[in-house]
Amino acid sequence: MNFYTAARACLGGFFRFLYNIRIVGRENEPTDGSFMVCANHLSNRDVIILGASFKRQVHFLAKAELFRVPLLRHLIRALGAFPVDRQHASTVLGPIKTTIGILNDGKTVGIFPQGTRYPGKDPKQTQIKNGVGMIEFHSKSKVVPVLIKTKGWRVLPFKRTYVIIGKPIEYDEFGFTGGRSAEFAKAAELIFSRINDLA
Q: What is the DSSP track for 53-102?
């Protein structure tokens, strides 16, 4: 049993209780192969909520600053996180390549298409980034849309949190041809529309 499996076994139930998580559509989680978990972003607890809701280990991007804290660095690495430096645009391609590599290894990655948190806002009223479309083009993985839904769109302890898992989107549905920026944007819009359709 690795560290992640042990941590999830010990803490998964606690976090599902703490955030009063109700999982809908659990049967839509793929049992094998790589896939992206793409969800709306309400709070910094979303990573914990998704990790506690999926059977497979979900790897996430984490702020590079967290990896500079000695004890925390080892913990979040053991939990499958990998760093991204959001302050320097030139470093963005590194995390994207890392994400694609993890997917090509048959693993699962969690991505928030909005790129930042929007507490208290209906996801339909928020902006999204195109990076998820680029990752999908290069990885050709399944995409599992997920809606994190609460009353008032805020995550709070003991307040009911719904994790609604939609049916996977297959690579062929995106209709990629040349892998251009416009196609990445269209793919990101498709993914986010499937997330919002779960409301």
A: H-SS-EEEEEEGGGGGSHHHHHHHHHTT-EEE-TT-GGGTHHHHHHHHHH
Separation CA 153–CA 148 (nearest Å) = 8
- pLDDT per residue as tens digits for the range 132-163: 999 999 999 999 999 999 999 999 999 999 99
Identify the weakest region by mean pLDDT among 4-18, 111-125, 129-143, 166-180. 4-18
Q: Are 162 and 123 in contact (CB under 8 A)?
A: no
DSSP state at residue 169: B
Spatial CA neighbour of 148 closest among 76, 68, 46: 46
Tell me the pairing of strands 161-165 and 142-149. Answer: antiparallel
Which tokens in the block code for residue 165? 């898992």
Question: Tens digit of pLDDT for each residue in 5-55?
Answer: 887 788 888 999 999 999 999 999 999 999 999 999 999 899 889 989 999
Please choose, from the candidates 183, 143, 185, the residue with its C-alpha nearest in 3D space to the C-alpha of residue 165: 143
Q: How far apart are CA 72 and CA 45, in angstroms?
A: 16
Query: Do 182 and 103 meet the contact criterion of CB atoms below 8 Å apart?
Result: no
